[in-house]
Design a protein that fits this description.
The structure holds two protein chains of two kinds.
Chain A (H helix, E strand, L loop, with lengths): L1 H29 L11 H13 L24 E2 L1 H13 L6 H13 L8 E8 L4 E7 L2 H9 L1 H6 L8 E10 L5 E9 L6
Antiparallel strand pairs in A: 2-3, 3-5, 4-5
Chain B lengths: L1 H20 L5 E3 L5 E2 L13 H4 L1 E4 L2 E4 L6 E7 L7 E11 L3 E8 L5 E6 L5 E7 L4 E8 L9 E7 L1
C-alpha cells in the first residue's frame, strides 16, 4: 500500500510541475524576452510601453488602446522669428494713428539731426512719423559709420530737440550693397509700447 | 535592463535641459558684475579711464563717487537667443536724479539692433535681442554738488 501511495504522490507532483513549467513558458513568450522568471512581472510591462512609443513599425496590436499623445512643447512667448518681428513692426507703424503737428515736428528734428557733423557717414533717405512711431530709411557709408552713429543715436536725437526718455529704436533689417554701403530700416517708438 | 537604463538617462538629460533652459528667467544682475566703459579702449579698468577711477562698487551697486565727475558703466545681460529674437523686460533701481540707463542689443557683427532709454527710476523697458545677439545695460552716473548720489542698483530681466 505504501509504495502505491508514494507512486501516486510522485505522479501528482510531476503533473503539477509540468503544468507550472508550461504556464511559465507562455509568460516568457508574452513578456518579450525577459531575462529571468523573477523579472517577468513589472519590468516587462515597461518594455512593452517603450516599444510602442519608439517603434517605427506598425503595432501588431491593432485593437489595443493607443498611447496618449506626447505633450506639445511649451512655446516661449517672448521669442519671435526675425521675419515675423520685422512684419509686426511694419504693421504697428501702418496701423498707428496718422501724423499730427507733433509728429511732423519730430520728423523735422530727425532730419536736422542727420544733417549734423555727428551723423557724418549716414544719409537719411526717408523719414515718416505717425502719432507715436517713426520709420526711417538710412544709408551708411560703411560698417564703421553704422556702428559709430548708432552708438550715439540717443545723444544725436536729444541734441536736436527730441525727448529720448523712454524712447526706443530697432533696426530689424539691414542690407549691404556691393560697394559696402548699408541700407537700414529704423523704427523709433516709445519703449513701453508692447509692440516695440 | 538596457531599456531601463536608457529611460533613466533620458529622464536625467531632460531634467538637466529643463533647468538649463530656465536658468536665465528672472535673472538678477548686479552692476558690480559689469565694468566701466572706455570708448575704444581694450582695458576698461585702465587708470586713465575716468569711468574706472571715479566709480565705487559695493553690494550690488555702482556709484559715481566724485561730484562733477562722470561714470559710464556697462553690465552685460545673458539673454538666451539661439533661434529667435527674444524680448526681455528690464527693471533697475537708480538712486539720484543724475543717474540714468540705456539698454542695448547687438547683432553678432557688432551693429546695434535695438536700444531703449530708461523712462523712470525703476523701469528701463522691453528690449528685443536678435538671434545670437548680445545685450547690455549702459548706466550714466554723474553726481554733482547738489545731487551727490548717483548709483545704479541691481537689474532684473525676464
Amino acid at each position: 500500500m505504501k509504495p502505491l501511495v508514494a507512486f501516486v504522490v510522485v505522479v501528482t507532483l510531476a503533473i503539477v510541475g509540468v503544468v507550472a513549467v508550461k504556464h511559465r513558458g507562455v509568460g516568457e513568450v508574452k513578456s518579450a524576452q525577459a531575462d529571468s522568471a523573477d523579472s517577468a512581472g513589472r519590468p516587462e510591462r515597461q518594455e512593452v510601453v517603450v516599444r510602442h512609443v519608439f517603434s517605427m513599425e506598425p503595432s501588431p496590436n491593432v485593437g489595443a488602446p493607443t498611447p496618449p499623445p506626447a505633450p506639445v512643447a511649451e512655446q516661449d512667448p517672448a521669442a519671435v522669428s526675425p521675419e515675423k518681428y520685422a512684419q509686426d513692426l511694419d504693421a504697428a507703424f501702418r496701423t498707428d494713428a496718422p501724423a499730427g503737428p507733433a509728429a511732423q515736428q519730430t520728423a523735422d528734428s530727425i532730419t536736422s539731426a542727420f544733417n549734423t557733423p555727428n551723423a557724418k557717414g549716414a544719409t537719411l533717405q526717408r523719414v515718416e512719423c505717425h502719432a507715436t512711431r517713426c520709420r526711417m530709411e538710412v544709408q551708411f557709408d560703411d560698417l564703421d559709420s553704422d556702428k559709430r552713429i548708432f552708438k550715439g543715436i540717443f545723444e544725436l536725437l536729444s541734441s536736436n530737440g527730441i525727448d529720448t526718455r523712454g524712447l526706443g529704436f530697432v533696426v530689424p533689417t539691414r542690407t549691404t550693397s556691393a560697394d559696402g554701403k548699408i541700407e537700414a530700416t529704423v523704427h523709433l517708438f516709445h519703449a513701453d509700447d508692447p509692440s516695440g | 535592463m538596457t531599456t531601463k537604463k536608457s529611460a533613466i538617462m533620458v529622464s536625467f538629460l531632460a531634467t538637466v535641459g529643463l533647468f538649463a533652459s530656465q536658468a536665465h528667467a528672472g535673472t538678477a544682475v548686479a552692476p558690480g558684475s559689469g565694468h566701466p566703459y572706455f570708448n575704444g579702449s581694450a582695458d576698461p579698468w585702465s587708470t586713465s579711464n575716468p569711468s574706472a577711477t571715479n566709480a565705487v562698487v559695493s553690494d550690488n551697486m555702482v556709484c559715481g563717487q566724485f561730484p562733477g565727475s562722470s561714470v559710464t558703466w556697462v553690465t552685460p545681460l545673458a539673454v538666451p537667443t539661439s533661434t529667435s529674437n527674444r524680448t526681455t523686460t528690464i527693471t533697475q533701481t537708480l538712486t539720484g536724479i543724475l543717474a540714468t540707463s540705456q539698454a542695448w542689443s547687438f547683432n553678432p557683427n557688432g551693429t546695434a539692433f535695438s536700444g531703449i532709454a530708461q523712462s523712470s527710476s525703476t523701469v528701463i523697458g522691453n528690449l528685443v535681442v536678435p538671434v545670437n545677439g548680445t545685450a547690455m545695460v549702459k548706466s550714466f552716473l554723474s553726481p554733482d554738488v547738489d545731487n551727490p548720489t548717483a548709483c545704479a542698483d541691481t537689474f532684473i530681466f525676464t
